[in-house]
Every structure is written in C-alpha cells, then in structure tokens.
Amino acid sequence: MSKRFTFADLNFKEDPHLAEKYQTTFIRTRLSFGEKYGLSIVRLPGKNTYEIGALVDGELTELPGITEDGDTVKAGLTPDDVSGIILKMQSISASEPKEEDVTF
Asked: Pseudo-torsion of CA 22, 97, 8, 26, nearest 10°?
C-alpha cells in the first residue's frame, strides 16, 4: 500500500501572474486526479490559510463535498483541511493525485 498523499507532499511555487494582478505574493500548486478532476491550492498573502478551487475538465466548478453550494472555491483552510480535501478528491475521481508541473 502506498503512502497517502497529504498537504506535506505539496510543492508550492510563486505565481507572478497573480502577484502582478493583485500586487502581492501568492504561492500555489495544482493537483490532477485522472484526466477529469483537478484541485488548485493557493496560500493567501499574509495568511497561514489556504484556498482551493475544484476543477472539472479544467474549469473551476462547484463540487458537492468539496465546495459549498454556489461556490467554486473554498477559503480559510488549514493544511489538515487541504489534506482531507485531497483524500475526498481521490475518492470522487478514483485516481491517485499527481502534482502538475505548472510553470507560472
């Protein structure tokens, strides 16, 4: 049995596009779960919390059990919250998470 993928396994990078748009530093990463599902994870500037966006076919999407009704993102998350969402996404997709090599 392989080790469970958690927040500690993530490799965040600075995103210059968000930094330019909002005039502050953002770090982010993205996971794919098979070909259909994804998860964008961003650390909010000046905070120790994270925001996730659920992706279906590359588009931000409301996803029951991951985001709230009417929302495509969920903010104010701790590392443990993010680990729980990674596990839920793995269950929904029936796929192991793979961190994408996103160049910003």
From this structure: -10
